[in-house]
Amino acid sequence: MSSTGILLGGLGAVIGGVFGGGPGGAMIGWQIGFGLGSIIDPIKPDQPPQEDFAINRAADGTPINDLLGSQRISSSNIFWECCERLVQAGGKDKGKSDETQGYFHSWALAICMGPVDTLFTVMVGDKVVWSGELNRPAAGGEETITLGGVMGNSQMTFYFGTDDQIANATLGSNLTDPTLNPPYRGLCWAYFDDAFIGTRAIPSMTFVLKKSPVLDFNVHHAIDYWDYNPAHALYYVFNNMMELPESFLSETDFSTIADTLHIEGHGISILFNQAQGALTYVEQILAHADGIMRYDSDGKFHPKLLRGDAAIASLPSFDENVMLEKPQMTRPSWFDTLNETRVQYVRRFKKDCFMDDYIAPTWDPDNPETIARNSSVAINILNGAAPFTWEVEGTGFNFASNITFERTNALMADITGCGTATITVTDVCGNKITEIGSIVTPGEENYIRCTTGEWVEIDPECVLDDTPDTYWYSAPYHYSDKVVGRYKQQNQYEGAGGGGPGTTCETDYPPLEPFCNNGGYEYCGDSIAPIAELGGAPCTCITISPTEIWWYWIQGVRLWEWQCS
Q1: How far is it, in rounded angstroms, from Cα 134 to Cα 401?
Q2: Of 6, 69, 270, 554, which residue is least crowded by CB atoms under 10 Å?
Q3: Torsion over CA: 300, 306, 311, 312 (sign)
C-alpha cells in the first residue's frame, strides 16, 4: 500500500473536517489527499519483506552430531536449500490448482554421523509429521517416506549414512557443477523435495534415531531394544572417536564387562552434540555403568565395574609406613552440609521383567484361525512386557509393524499368501510365544492358516493333546478329528471287551494295560474320548452291563499339515 497516499489522505481528512463541515467534508478531504499521494507514490502489490525469506543455514565449524543407542536430535545443520515457491489462493501462481496454499521449499539437512540403524519419528517443532520404524536397508542406504501433519504430503529421502549411498539426483540437477553433489557417505542426512512448510522459513526439524554399531570384540552391543552397551560405548569413544588403535585396549576386559552389563540389562543412550573432550564422555559413561578405567603397565586401557566382588585379602594395603606425608583431615562446616537430596532416575523397559507381577507373554486363545489372501486380521497376545518384537514365517505374510508397545498387531496376507503363517512374539524380557516342543497346547498355538492351501498328509505322530472336535464311526472302528493351527489329526480307536457273572472294571482292569501301546502309538491325552456318549477315554475301562466291560485304545494316528497348494 502507498505510505504517501495514507499520509496525504489523513491530512486531507483533517482539513476537510475543519473547513468542509463535519464527517462529509472529512471523507472528501481523505479521498482527495489519498489520490494525490497515490500519484506521487503508486500502490505496489503486497509482498512479504525480503528478510522473511531468510533460511536457517549451517555455520562453519558446527560439530556434526553423533549418537549411541536411541536419541532425539534437534540440532541439525542445513547445508543446501533451493527453489522456494508460494502457492496463493485464486492467483496466477507457480503452483498447481489443487496444491495446499503456502510456501514450498527444497533443502538438505545434515543430522548425524552414520550409519544409523532405525528412524522412528520426524517432528516439526513439537508436532509429529511421521512415525514408524524405518530400518536401514541391506544396500543403498536410503529410503523415501511421505510426511504428513503440518507438512502435508511432502516427500523426504532419508540417508542412513552408509558407505554405499549415492548422490541425490534431484539435488544435483539444481547445481551448475555436478562435482559439488557428493553422496555424503558416512553422514546421516535428509533431503526434502519441494516440501510444504506453510510459513516463509524452513522449520526446525527433530529426528528420533537409533544407532547401535556392531563391534568385533563382543556380540552384546545392544541392550533391550533401545539402548547400547556401555562397554561398547567406551570402546567406540576410544577406537572410533579418539582413533586409538585396538592394541591400546584390553579386549578381554572390555568383553567381560560387556557380558556383565548385558546380563544386568544396564544400557545407555548418549548424544555427542557438544565440542567437549572425549574424557568428559568417558567419565559420563563410567559413572552411568558404575565403573572405572585403569591404564596398566601393559600399555592398555582396562575397564572395571565396581560390583563389590573384589577379594579383600588381595587388595593392597596403605598405612603410615608407606605414606610420605600424613594425610590432612578437615571437617566441613555447617554451611557445607546438605539438607536436601534430589534423586533422578529413569525406569528402563527391561526393569518390568523383574517386577513381582510380571507374567510371560501367552497366545490369546481368541485369535482367528484363518486369514484370506489380500486381507488382514488382528493378532493379540496376553501379558508380557513391552516393547514386543513380531516375526512371521510363511509365503506372503507380514506384520503392520515389527515392534509394538501394544499387545496387538495386524497380520497381513498379500495376493501370494498361502499355507501357514508361523508367528513368534518376543517381549523385552526375551520370553517368546512359540510352539512348545512337538505338542501344540491351546493358548500356546501360534499358527494362522491362509484360506488358500490344502491338507497334506505327513508322517504320523501324536501332536494334538486336546479334546477332539468331532467323533464318528465307520465300521469297524471309531474315529476322532481335531484341527489346531496348521495340523489336523485323526485318531482311530480299537475296542475290546468281555465278561461274565461278576466281571467288573476293578477286577479285570489289569489285562487292559498291554493294549495301550498297540500299533506302536503312544496314548494321546486323558481328555480324548473315543465314544463321547459313553464317557470313555483311551485305556479306560467302561462297564457296559453287570456282566460285560469294554476298554478302548488308539489303534492308529493320521496327521495332516496345511500347506501351500
Answers
A1: 10
A2: 6
A3: positive
Question: Would the pTM of this model clear 0.90, i.e. be above it?
Answer: no
Give the closest residue to 503 by CA, choosing from 472, 542, 560, 473. 542
Nearest to 114 by CA among 205, 184, 217: 184
- What are the DSSP calls for 466-488, one per residue? S--SEEEEETTEEEEEEEETTEE
Q: Is the peptide bond before 115 cis (omega within 30 degrees of 0)?
A: yes
pLDDT score, position 467: 64
DSSP strands (E only) in 125-153? 127-135, 142-147
Rounded to an integer, what distance in angstroms lies between the CA atom of residue 484 and that of residue 561?
10
SS3 for 505?
A: helix
Cell of 452: 488358500
Structural domains present in the chain: 3-40 (no CATH), 63-170+182-211 (no CATH), 222-307 (no CATH), 353-452 (2.60.40.10), 470-559 (no CATH)
For residue 352, give every residue at least 6 positions away whose Cβ sits within 8 Å of its Cβ, in sequence order, or none: 358, 385, 386, 428, 429
Structural contact between residues 294 and 96, judged by C-beta atoms closer than 8 angstroms: no
If one counts every other C-beta atom within 10 angstroms of the C-beta of residue 354, the result is 10
Q: What is the CA radius of gyration of the chain?
A: 38
Alpha-carbon dihedral 224, 226, 227, 232, rounded to 10 degrees: 90
Per-residue pLDDT reduced to its tens digit, 335-356: 777 667 676 655 555 567 777 7
Unique residue bearing C-alpha cell 491351546 = 442
By the 10 Å C-beta count (0-12 exposed, 13-18 middle, 19+ buried), 346 is classed as exposed
Report the candidate in 425, 410, 490, 486 with the shortest Cα–Cα distance to residue 450: 486
pLDDT tens digits, 431-475 = 888 543 333 333 344 667 777 888 888 876 655 655 677 777 777
Q: For residue 511, how far is the Cα from the chain centroid?
A: 61
Query: Any bridge partners for residue 549, and if so which?
Result: 498, 543
Fill in the amino acid letter for 469.
Answer: D
Q: Which H, E and C letters describe 68-110, residue by residue?
A: EEEEEECCCEEEEEEEEEEECCCCCCCCCCCCCCEEEEEEEEE
**Where do the DSSP E strands lie in 160-279?**
187-198, 205-211, 222-223, 227-228, 270-272
Calculated CA dihedral for residues 318, 319, 321, 326, nearest 10 degrees: 110
What pairs with residue 561 in β-bridges? 456, 487
* Dihedral angle over CA of 432, 433, 439, 441, nearest 10: 140
Give me the residues paired with residue 557 across strands: 491
